[in-house]
Specification:
The chain is α/β, with parallel strands linked by helices and 406 residues long. The protein has helices at residues 4-9, 36-48, 59-79, 93-103, 126-135, 152-158, 181-190, 210-213, 238-243, 278-294, 296-315, 344-353, 366-372, 388-405; strands spanning 17-18, 21-22, 24-25, 87-90, 113-117, 138-142, 163-169, 194-198, 217-221, 232-236, 254-257, 262-264, 320-323, 334-339, 356-357, 359-361, 377-381. The structure holds ligand 7TS.
């Protein structure tokens, strides 16, 4: 059970006023807010432990290294990875995807095909297009229905012995669709293709089990799950991480360096060149602890209640259309909507005047907007620290925007 008063007390920013009104933060799919427990870890790190890691004999460096590696273990446990060295700490989802896309350059050729879905964020499209340009491989796209759900028959028809990689997000950032990744992974493996799942939008709501999924790569960003910006995770199966070459060269990722030849460090350091976001990694571990203490079952159950409550009320507003799955079982707490003949940006601007933060536009998913032939949507995305009273404020804000703009 969510104790909403206790939870809200953990988030100092929720006491803010915006434009003279209490902040209603419904842009959680862009970035989540940070609880005091995580802020305290950041302050404690810079107050007491700040040093470079993996290299110093001195006490501070050893303590900082222990904290950083302890965070990796927490993240390993959270994702249920078999080995801690399969957990690479990155700067975020985008970094993780680019690392894998770059690594596959020498493993693909013009005969090969890679598959993405019609529901992807640009960061799960562009790096694969760049990979295809480098290798001559062909990019195929799993189409979707007008409800924003992937057409699985079409996916199966795309798969062949040419398919080398499949990239799909677990949950769409633009529409909230939960994709059937278990089936997607299983079918890809039947033709010998590797699968990368973009978990940027699922990890705030769901605890993924990478071993049960049997997924090859899974990426996420800390800043969408109560952690800081500039840090994230790439889980990779050991056999794949061994096959891929390093992404960046530099300090930390080497075994021996001479001008004739350099040999690389083992996992995970082979992929972690340079000084990482040490404090960010430690705070990511604290964020994972914080969310697990609340519990992902309780989080997703509560968020689903918010989704049902908001959907029912929004649909009562005449001329309002929700884009995405009609069946709320296939959806997380993201609502993308439009008011007939009104530009989403105008709605967002009026909501901001009322202290309500939503995102408007294409949400870095232009192909989705093109598919629906719309310039963008208004997106309200809820987290476990939001309330029904805040949704009431959104509903009256949308009604007011409609009145002012029609
Ligand atoms: N993949 C998905 C599904 C995302 O939603 C995002 C960010 C990314 C990748 C990129 O994550 P980053 O942490 O590397 O930037 N999505 C959003 C959004 O929906 N609004 O702002 C950022």
């Amino acid at each position: 059970m969510i104790n909403i008063d206790n939870i809200r007390a953990d988030f100092p920013i929720l006491n803010r006023q915006v434009n003279g009104k209490p902040l209603v933060y419904f842009d959680n799919a862009a970035t989540s807010q940070t609880p005091q427990q995580v802020i305290d870890v950041i302050v404690d790190y810079y107050s007491n432990y700040n040093a470079n890691i993996h290299r110093g004999v001195h006490t501070l460096s050893q303590e900082a290294t222990d904290l950083y590696e302890d965070a990796r273990l927490k993240i390993q446990q959270h994702f249920n990875a078999k080995h801690s060295y399969e957990i690479l700490l990155t700067s975020g989802t985008t970094h993780g995807i680019n690392l894998v896309a770059n690594g596959f350059t020498s493993l693909l050729d013009a005969h090969d095909e890679v598959i993405v879905s019609a529901l992807e964020h640009h960061s799960n499209i562009v790096p694969w297009q760049m990979l295809c340009e480098r290798t001559g491989a062909t990019l195929k796209v799993i189409p979707m229905t007008t409800d924003g759900e992937l057409i699985m028959n079409a996916y199966e028809a795309l798969l062949s012995e040419r398919t080398k990689l499949v990239f799909v997000n677990h949950i769409s950032n633009a529409l909230g669709t939960i994709n059937p990744i278990e089936t997607i992974i299983q079918k890809a493996h039947e033709v010998g293709a590797a699968v990368l799942i973009d978990g940027a939008q699922s990890c705030p709501h769901i605890k993924p089990d990478v071993q049960a999924l049997d997924v090859d790569f899974y990426v996420a960003s800390a800043h969408k799950m109560c952690g800081p910006t500039g840090v994230g995770v790439l889980y990779g199966k050991e056999e794949w991480l061994d096959k891929l070459p390093p992404y960046q060269g530099g300090g930390e990722m080497i075994d021996q360096v001479s001008f004739e030849k350099t040999t690389y460090a083992g996992l995970p350091h082979k992929f972690e060149a340079g000084t990482p976001n040490i404090c960010g990694g430690i705070a990511f571990g604290a964020a994972v602890d914080y969310m697990n203490a609340i519990g992902f079952d309780a989080i997703s159950r509560y968020e689903h209640e918010l989704l049902e409550y908001a959907t029912a009320q929004l649909l009562e507003i005449e001329g309002l259309e929700i884009i995405g799955p009609k069946d709320l079982k296939n959806k997380t707490s993201v609502i993308s909507f439009n008011l007939k003949d009104i530009h989403p940006y105008d709605v967002g601007t009026i909501l901001d005047k009322m202290g309500i933060a939503v995102r408007t536009g294409h949400h870095c998913a232009q192909p989705i907007m093109d598919f629906f032939n719309i310039p963008g949507t208004v997106r309200a995305s809820f987290a476990f620290y939001n309330t029904k009273a805040e949704i009431d404020a959104l509903i009256s804000g949308v009604k007011k925007a409609k009145m002012m703009l029609s």
